[in-house]
């Protein structure tokens, strides 16, 4: 269970500091000077970097059922590991959302989950840029697919860049959040969405299906692109040098 515990812990850190940045430092409890979209994006990205370099050698630091699915499709892990990782990641995310909720409730600045939310994902009227379900779905699929392609590429055993993999992955997640926070709050991670939705309830729970289905579809597509060598670099350096016409 060592790998699963590492995944639960890593996902806890990702959600606690990522969602926590939005709720605790993003104006959710009456803070006058919030850290804004850029700050929240960096909190998610830096959390991934920290976990990649600390627990990466234990479990791979997936921190995300979509990443685990992409890894399974690409042949990196088996189905049993995907399931156990996904359960651990989801539990870690729920615990993190609970911790953020408790801290926010104990603020003298006042916290109303109905008014301020708890970092849940969403779409439609009253949420972010009020993108409709199609726009939200397409963003989550595309963003997750890109995320998986990057992760699988930089962690490829023979052609990847392991020294910089954690940094590249964290920066990619930051990039995705910079665009996606206004669209959906940015999920690309079913566990990250499940945790806050359980405490927000209502619309967040009703819309949760999208933040499970879309990221998993994107992850499957990203995993297939890598497996079919469409986006993964060739292992033979002579193939790179010869070019496509050779």
Brief overview, please?
The chain has about 250 residues and is an all-alpha fold. The protein is built from eleven helices and no strands. It has a single domain (about 1-230), classed as Glycerol uptake facilitator protein.
What key attributes describe this structure?
globular, membrane, Glycerol uptake facilitator protein, mainly alpha, 246 residues, cell membrane, transmembrane, MIP_CS
Can you put this structure into words, describing what you see?
By secondary structure, the chain is mostly helical. It has one domain: Glycerol uptake facilitator protein, CATH 1.20.1080.10. 68% of the residues lie in helices and 0% in strands. The protein contains eleven helices and no strands. Helix 4 runs parallel beside helix 8 and helix 8 packs antiparallel against helix 10. The protein starts with a helix and ends with a helix. It is a multi-pass membrane protein. GO terms for molecular function: water channel activity. Belongs to the MIP/aquaporin (TC 1.A.8) family.
């Amino acid at each position: 269970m060592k790998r699963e515990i590492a995944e639960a812990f890593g996902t806890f850190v990702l959600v606690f500091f990522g969602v926590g940045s939005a709720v605790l430092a993003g104006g959710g409890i009456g803070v006058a000077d919030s850290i804004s979209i850029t700050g929240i994006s960096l909190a998610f990205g830096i959390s991934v970097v920290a976990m990649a370099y600390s627990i990466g050698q234990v479990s791979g630091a997936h921190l995300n059922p979509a990443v685990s699915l992409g890894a399974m499709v690409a042949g990196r892990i088996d189905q049993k590991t995907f399931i156990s990782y996904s359960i651990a990641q989801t539990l870690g995310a729920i615990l993190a959302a609970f911790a953020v909720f408790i801290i926010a409730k104990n603020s003298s600045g006042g916290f109303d989950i109905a008014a301020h939310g708890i970092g849940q994902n969403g779409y439609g009227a009253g949420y972010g840029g009020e993108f409709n379900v199609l726009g939200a779905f397409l963003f989550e699929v595309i963003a997750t697919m890109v995320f998986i392609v990057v992760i699988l590429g930089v962690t490829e055993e023979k052609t990847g860049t392991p020294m910089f993999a954690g940094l590249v992955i964290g920066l990619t997640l930051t990039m995705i959040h910079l665009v996606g926070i206004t669209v959906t709050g940015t999920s690309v991670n079913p566990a990250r969405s499940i945790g806050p939705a359980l405490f927000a309830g209502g619309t967040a729970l009703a819309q949760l299906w999208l933040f499970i289905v879309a990221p998993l579809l994107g992850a499957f597509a990203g995993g297939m692109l890598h497996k079919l060598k469409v986006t993964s670099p060739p292992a033979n350096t002579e193939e790179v040098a010869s070019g496509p016409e050779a």
